[in-house]
Specification:
mainly alpha; Growth Hormone, Chain: A; 462 residues; MFS; MFS_dom; MFS_trans_sf
Length: 462
């Protein structure tokens, strides 16, 4: 079996699902907090008397704090466990939402968003740490994908009930309600979540290696101690599998975040001539596509763990090709081509979660939180840089803000710089990871050998 968290024992599936569900509820509320200001943009401009460009500062603050908090949160997570981190984070997020609902000046609103960012930063990595502690290793890749997908339903809460409350009852009531929801999930986590199942009666030995289905080779699992051991952070930093996860998240997440968090709607409306309702429909399609692509990706990475990097490379290449097909022509693209773009961007986002699976496979369980946080930094740092690059190009070519398709074609093309960096890092780290695996007796066979083995039975039967 694969590596598991310390003290893992077989857990009843109903209990495991309940623990995961409570943590997932906290992540959904965190996602709601992250996206709530996005649907309240017009009201925020009026309340704080700011321009649209200043409003974008809220996005930068949110992502910046989220990314900066990942490694510190991961270190704390390894020390105190998921339950305490999620509980504390939910209360911090609730305090930020309440503060945002009460203040009416920009500096205090930014402080409130910092609190929301810190609270948000605790949820995802903490829930991911619960999954291998409570579920069999073969289910972890799929549940990792499902955690990300289900967590994004917080966007629906922001877009529907929260927006309705905002328009009907006003700013303060709407954000105070989110604060109350945060307190509720904090209490739920305190009551339900436990960091791991009951401790076994005898110490666990070193974990067995993973036997991937259909690969004919074994992947060494991270060692599991009978008692919590002090694993230095340097062990995470020196592990090439950590950086393989980092660059996986880096290269797969930034194009999706750049599109969904800020520049997608302007690109579709001002650049491609799509109506606001049409742009909203395309973004909805992206959310629905994740319901399909996430489980499929999770199934494939669980069934073929030696070929996970090929899933990543395939998603990156597909995204680059489809973006090129949209940006090279000088005329607006048909709706079907734009729909294909948002679906491929969703595939790229789901592939980014494979980075967390790399961390789980190669990093000792005692430092899984730190490794997960470091992997999560990759995608959000790249997203910040990408959002900044696109905005900088637009400012240079069209300072008055009257953007055209030609402006967006040039600005969106700046993403090629991040693809180049991300792919280079991914390939270098993959080579280093495979070299480390070979030292442990696991050699990844070339693809041509795998294809040859698949053809042999056909030849014999022919």
């Amino acid at each position: 079996m694969a590596a598991v968290s310390p003290f893992q024992a077989p857990a009843p599936s109903r209990v495991a699902a309940t623990v995961w569900g409570a943590g997932l509820a906290a992540y959904i509320v965190a996602t709601t907090g992250r996206t709530s200001l996005g649907v309240a943009g017009l009201q925020a401009v009026e309340r704080f008397d700011i321009s649209a460009s200043v409003l974008s500062l809220f996005v930068v603050v949110q992502l910046g704090v989220y990314a900066a908090a990942q490694v510190p949160v991961g270190i704390v997570l390894d020390r105190v466990g998921s339950r305490k981190v999620i509980f504390t984070g939910a209360l911090i997020l609730a305090a930020g939402q309440l503060m945002l609902g009460l203040v009416d000046t920009l500096p205090l609103a930014l402080v409130a968003r910092v609190l929301v960012g810190v609270g948000d930063a605790t949820a995802f990595v903490s829930v991911l740490r619960l999954v291998p502690a409570w579920f069999p290793s073969q289910r972890v890749p799929l549940l990792t994908q499902m955690t990300g997908i289900i967590g994004q339903t917080g966007q629906i809460i922001s877009a529907v009930p929260f927006l309705a409350l905002l328009l009907g009852a006003g700013w303060t009531t709407a954000f105070a309600s989110l604060a109350a929801l945060g307190v509720f999930v904090a209490l739920l986590v305190l009551a339900v979540v436990r960091d791991h199942p009951a401790r076994p009666s005898r110490p666990a030995r070193r974990s067995e290696s993973v036997q991937p289905v259909g690969t004919g080779a074994e992947v060494p699992a991270a060692p599991v101690a009978a008692e919590p051991t002090r694993v230095p952070i340097s062990a995470v930093v020196r592990e090439p599998g950590t950086w393989l996860g980092f660059f996986t998240h880096f290269v797969c997440l930034f194009p999706t975040n750049t599109f969904l968090l800020l520049w997608g709607v302007p690109f579709l409306t001002a650049g491609q001539g799509v109506s606001t309702a049409g742009a909203s429909s395309l973004l909805t399609l992206a959310a629905l596509a994740g319901v399909v692509t996430g489980p499929v990706t999770g199934y494939l990475q669980g069934r073929h763990p030696l070929r996970r990097s090929w899933l990543v490379l395939g998603a990156v290449v597909a995204t680059i090709v489809v973006w090129a097909s949209v940006l090279v022509p000088t005329t607006p693209r048909p709706v079907w081509q734009l729909a294909l773009l948002v679906v491929v961007l969703t595939v790229s986002a789901t592939a980014s979660n494979i980075g967390f699976d790399f961390a789980r496979s190669f990093v000792p369980a005692a430092r899984l939180g730190t490794a997960t946080g470091l992997v999560n930094v990759g995608g959000f740092v790249a997203s910040l840089v990408s959002i900044f690059l696109v905005g900088s190009v637009l400012d240079v070519v069209r300072p008055d803000g009257a953007y055209t398709l030609a402006d967006f074609r040039l600005a969106m093309s700046s993403q090629v710089l991040l693809w180049a960096v991300g792919l280079a890092g991914l390939l270098v780290c993959r080579r280093a990871t495979r070299r480390r695996m070979a030292e442990g007796g696991v050699v990844v066979p070339p693809v041509r050998e795998v294809l040859e083995r698949l053809r042999r039975p056909r030849r014999r039967h022919g």
